[in-house]
Each structure stands twice: as structure tokens, then as C-alpha cells.
Queue: 3 jobs
Job 1
Amino acid sequence: MSSARPVPFLKGHGTENDFVIIPDPDGEFELSKEAVARLCDRRAGIGGDGLLRAVRSARHPEARGMAGEAEWFMDYRNSDGSIAEMCGNGVRVFARHLVRAGLAPAGELAVATRAGIRRVRLAADGGGVTVGMGRAALPAGDVRVTVGDRTWPARHVNVGNPHAVAFVDDLAAAGPLREAPGVAPAAAYPQGVNVEFVVDRGPRHVALRVYERGSGETRSCGTGACAVMVAAARRDGADPSADGNPVTYTVDVPGGRLVISEGTDGGIEMTGPAVIVAEGMLDPDLLAV
Ligand SMILES: N[C@@H](CCC[C@H](N)C(=O)O)C(=O)O
């Protein structure tokens, strides 16, 4: 242990997509890729699908321009230490942490992310958390997802981060997902991609498995669930901005359930749980890797 002070951390999850949270209001910590991977390691660290660093927007170069609207910046990292634009489950957990720690009032709060500002609604005493996830973009062009000798057509959906959504007959058909599925054409996703496999469960009710860029298969992905909702709505002929009616889908993930709506302005809202399960102190050497 070095002479540096221990560093506070928390652990939380949203539909079992789990995160290490590092409060860093003044942006003091240089978190290397290696340090994040170590913290997210389930044996050598705390363990998590990703890491959320809570920095005041005014103290982070990527968020300074949003500081007037959003006091806090969610610096999100995948478990391999790579940076991502946005995390839908993470932003709910992030908001839960801020309110629980008295750093933001319950009600509506704006969070700065690399994909822009996200507005989150939550009560002080727990319950579901609702996030305005912005609009989805659906770039044209055919995309295909391959696992072993199976290939499925997929829909390219961007909800701040990139997704390939494949409708399948059976979630087990994707196999154990120990490796990233193949996605073609690679040029469609120059920064890599998150892949969702989806089955129908009933009218406007789907279930998914996800292989996340930078984290592998996880128990849930909030942005992935939003991408799936939009892909399912378009497949089902529902386009709220063209039809004038909002559309709501229930999206089951291995770790729980998310409810997702697309409004007539194209804005997506996601509601789901956000739980803090532990807090403690880290050996500062872990951050210095
Ligand atoms: N689990 C997240 C998504 C995290 C980022 C993703 N792996 C990426 O690299 O884009 C979610 O809940 O949205």
C-alpha cells in the first residue's frame, strides 16, 4: 500500500449490468486503461462490466461545454478499459449514486455523457429510474452477424453508441458467446459494435442477449435494449414520428426487465432499476497500474 490516501468506491448495478463507481468530483484521477481493467477484474479487483467515474463537468475537458446544463459528467469505461460514449444502465446507477450521496436532488437531473446530456428522473426512496435516451439513428445498409456457422441479418442502430440487432428464433442459437460475434461489413462499425440477439415474447414484448464491445456477454445493456426496441418497432411497422402515436415495448434481459418507449418526437425513454450494493475504500495502488 502506498502512502497515498485510500480511494472511496461504490458498486452498483442496473438489471445486473454491474459497475464500479469512482467518485472523483475534482477530476483528480488519471484512470489508465490498465487500471480500469484491473478494477473491473472479478478476481484481482472489485469486478464489474464497466466503471463509472463521477466527475464535475466543469473539471473534465470532454464535459466542460455541458457544465452549464449538467453539473456531473459520467466518464464511462468498459471492463477492458476502453472508453464508450454512453451506458444506459450505467446512467441510472450513476444518478442513483448522486442522489443517495446528496450530490444532486431527487426529481429530474441532467447528466453529461460523451453522447450528450441525458435527463434522468428518480425518486429519493428507490423505485424505477427513467432516462431520456435521445433519438436513435438507423443508418441504411445491410449488416450481418455471424456466430460459428450461423449468420443472421441485423439492423444497424445507433443510440449514442453503435449496435447490431439480430432477430433470431432462439436465444440459445448464439451459443456460449465467449468471443465477439462477427459483424459485416466491418466498415459499418469503425469503432466496434455491441451485438444484440433478440426473440419475441409476445405483442410488443421481446427478450435479448447481448455481447458488449469492451465487456463481453453481460446480463443487460440499456443502450442495447433501446436499440432493440427501435429495431423491433420498425420491423413491426411502428414509427411513432410518422404514425403520431408513442410506442412502448417491454424488453427482457437476462438480468431483469426494462420498459422502453419511443415518443412522437423520436425521443426514447427507458425505465428500469438502479441499485447501489456496496461502498468501501480502494488501495490507491490499484489506480496507479
Ligand atoms: N452496458 C451499457 C453499454 C456500455 C457501453 C458499450 N459496451 C459500448 O462499448 O458501447 C448500457 O447499459 O448501455
Job 2
Amino acid sequence: MSDNRHMLDELYQVILSRKNASPDSSYTASLLQGGLDRILKKVGEEATEVVIAGKGGEQAQLTCEAADLCYHLLVLLAARDVPVEAVWDELRRRFGTSGIAEKASRKLPPA
Ligand SMILES: N=c1c2ncn([C@@H]3O[C@H](COP(=O)(O)OP(=O)(O)OP(=O)(O)O)[C@@H](O)[C@H]3O)c2ncn1[C@@H]1O[C@H](COP(=O)(O)O)[C@@H](O)[C@H]1O
């Protein structure tokens, strides 16, 4: 598998760079300049598509819908001036800063 660890960070930077781009040449720019309500609508639509694909769709379909949702979520963060690093920090805080390997391999009781 290729190294995708920085993919969302890179995509977020590209999205930020579209804030002042022409909406004629960039879908991202047209979303950002179309206003918050349009972005929120897209996030809602994409989330619904993830739910539908998650329920009964092919794995490839769910993969595509999840990618669409990630992209639109990053557009929302950019529109609200929330750095994507703040999300990583919050996840890191929940995960804990110590004993990461232990947590990851921790055995859970069967469901
Ligand atoms: N990851 C994405 C990405 N994922 C989805 N989409 C677009 O999101 C749209 C969602 O499709 P839909 O069918 O739901 O909606 P639509 O009818 O096309 O659009 P709406 O009128 O409903 O808004 C499509 O036009 C996709 O092309 C994306 N557009 C751009 N990116 C990334 O953003 C970068 C910048 O792209 P520009 O937008 O061209 O600047 C690109 O290099 C990509 O990496």
C-alpha cells in the first residue's frame, strides 16, 4: 500500500489554495465561493451516500463515497477556517499520547 499518511493534509492545503481561485476552473473554488449553506448541503448529501453504500453497496462504492465525504468535510473545515491539524490533535487527545501500541493491540472481549 502506498504512503497515504499525509494525503488529507495535502488535500487540505490544495483546498485552501482554491479560496481565491476562479470558480470557472475549480469545483473547489466554486464550492468555497458558493457559501456555507451549499457546502453544508454537499456534506449532508455525501454523508447520506456513505450511509446507503455502507448498508448494502459494494465495497468499491463505499470507498468512493467515503472519499467524497472526506473531501467535502475538508472543504467545510477550510470554509470555517478550522485547520485540519486541529482534528488530528483532537483524535490524538482521545487516543492518548502514551501506550499507543498497547492500546492498538489491546484485546477486547468478544461481542
Ligand atoms: N477530491 C476531490 C473531489 N472529490 C469529489 N469531488 C467533486 O465533487 C463533486 C461531487 O459530485 P456530485 O455528483 O455529488 O455533485 P455534482 O453534481 O458534480 O456537484 P454539485 O452541483 O452537486 O455541487 C464532483 O464534481 C467531484 O468531481 C472532488 N473535487 C476535487 N477533489 C480534489 O480537489 C483538488 C482540487 O480540485 P479543483 O476543485 O479542480 O480545484 C483536486 O486535485 C482533487 O484532489
Job 3
Amino acid sequence: MNRTAAVSIRLEGVRKQYDDGTVAVRELSLELPAGELTVLVGPSGCGKSTILRMINRLIEPSAGRMWLGDDEITAVDPIGLRRRIGYVIQNVGLFPHQTVRDNVATVPKLLGWPKQRVAERTAELLDLVGLDPARYAARYPHELSGGQRQRVGVARALAADPVVLLMDEPFSAVDPIVRGRLQDEFLRLQQTVRKTIVFVTHDVDEAVRLGDRIVVLSEGGRLEQFAPPAVLLSRPANDFVAEFVGSDRGIKLLAVTPIPREGLRPLPDGHVSAAQAPSVPLGGSLRDALAALLEGDTGWVAVHDGGTALGILTPEDVYSVLRR
Ligand SMILES: Nc1ncnc2c1ncn2[C@@H]1O[C@H](COP(=O)(O)OP(=O)(O)OP(=O)(O)O)[C@@H](O)[C@H]1O
């Protein structure tokens, strides 16, 4: 599936002023690492969509330079460029009179792939996004739920094995429960494909849940902070970021902070296995640990790796890990 190696995206002094004088992006420099999911987040009108659309050249920047790996974006042929970039937007924009199969096959067909390869690829992608090809490939978009349509949109964007995926509020049109499920599936999908993804949302929770890194922007495409979720939540760069991420950032931080491997306290005497006490797997989050702590009455939670108990965490430990 992951045939094409991911590449980084670099912006240097990028500015966008629209014809009516609106400055959507003032001067932005950023390097988005290859194979990572970077979320652009910020209030409405801060230039998020403009930035995405400059990367795939639906919009030309007024100044500055951008690179996709070693290729300068503004110097290459825009059509060829767009074939290397998957683009998913809100409400997807599927072709209504084409089946799911034909929608997903759009770009491979354009690229002149042999029929057999197109068919295999389409089935593989539908599987990957959790839609059984036997059941869904022949349906039309109006015969799908909103969440299923979004999945087809993701499958279509991945079809030609793009080096980069740009996603503009792809999950915002579906209800919160479906949204949560799509986010989970999408994270699993990214484990498999490891694309360089730029994901736009105005929802901080979504940003924290999905992002390897988060770019917080304010009006005029001004960069306020660029950091992994845990850093953003524990050390917001300024008042704008602190306010934007919200007063419940401590709770959000619990969910993105992994249980530490080092510094666990030894199991108390008599507790030789994690089965005898509330326990969480190594690889879980501090929120999981806290939830297990609150359920049990031991005052501590065992951390296990497979069947082996590694040690315990107390509420004080959880607190001190958060404060690190
Ligand atoms: N074609 C255009 N002409 C003039 N101004 C525009 C144009 N497109 C966008 N803008 C303005 O540029 C600014 C940035 O818009 P953009 O759509 O990039 O913001 P956004 O952060 O994606 O917003 P939202 O979260 O509401 O989708 C806004 O002030 C918007 O009104």
C-alpha cells in the first residue's frame, strides 16, 4: 500500500493577499515532516484553507516559496503536482452519477492504469477504509451514509498513492459519534500508509486526537505555535494558544500523555501479578491509568506489558508525569 515514500512539505515566507486586499496569510514559514500528520488549527478565517490550497496550487501564493520534498511547488506543472497530492474536503465532492468504484478509480483511470490494476486497487482501498467492496462498490453516493461518503472520499484521495494528503475539515459534516469512529479508523489507516498529511480543523479536540504535530494559527495565517499535542497542552506558547486550546487542557493532556516506562514504583508485597489489581497496558495513556485508578480501591494501578506487571502508578505519579 505504501509504495511511494512520503516527503516533507516546506513553506518559506509564504504570503497570500487576495485581489480585494484581504491578507489571508501574512508570512508563514513551516516545515512539515515526512510521514507525519500535521494539523492546522485556528479560528475561522485564519487562513487554514488558503494554506492547503496553496500547497496544491488551487491558489497561487503572492510571495514566498514552497517545496514538496525537493520539488519547488510553484515551479512544477500544477496538474502533475495535484496527481501527487490527495485532497479531501468537507462533504467530499464525490461524483453523484458515478458508483463508489468509479469514484475511487478516478485518478488511476486518468493515469491510464490497466483495468485489472484499477479494479484491484479500488477493492484494496475500500477494504482499507472499512467498506466491504462486495457490498458498497456498485452503490451510488446517495446510497451511503455521510460517514461512508467521507470514507469513500479518503479512499479516492489515496487511490493513486499520493505522496501527500491534504484534508480540509473532512469529518466536520458528520455527527459526533460517527466523527469519533472516523477519527479512530483514520488513525489506524495512517499507521498503515504513513503519508505526509496536512489536516485542517477548527476543533482543538480533533487536532489533539489526530495530530503528530499541531500548528496553531491566528488571523492572517500568523503562526502562534507549532508543537506536538502534549507540548501544546502543557506549555502553550502564549495567551492566544492557552485560550484557544481551552481551560480543560489538563484533561486533554491526560489523553495524549503516554504511561511512562521508566520510574514506575515496584509492585506492593503480595501482588505478584497485574491480574490481582486494577491495571493498564503500557502503551495506554495517563487518562486510562486514572480511569483504572478511580475504578479500583487500591490507590494505585499496575502497569503491564503483555502479561508482565512492570510496576505501579499512584495518583501522585500521574500528577508528576503531567508536570514534567
Ligand atoms: N477568494 C477570496 N477573496 C478574498 N478573500 C478571501 C478569499 N478566500 C478567502 N478569503 C479570506 O481569506 C481569509 C482566510 O480564509 P480561509 O478560508 O483560508 O480561512 P479558514 O481558516 O480556512 O476559515 P474557516 O475555518 O472558516 O474555513 C478570510 O478572511 C477569508 O474571508
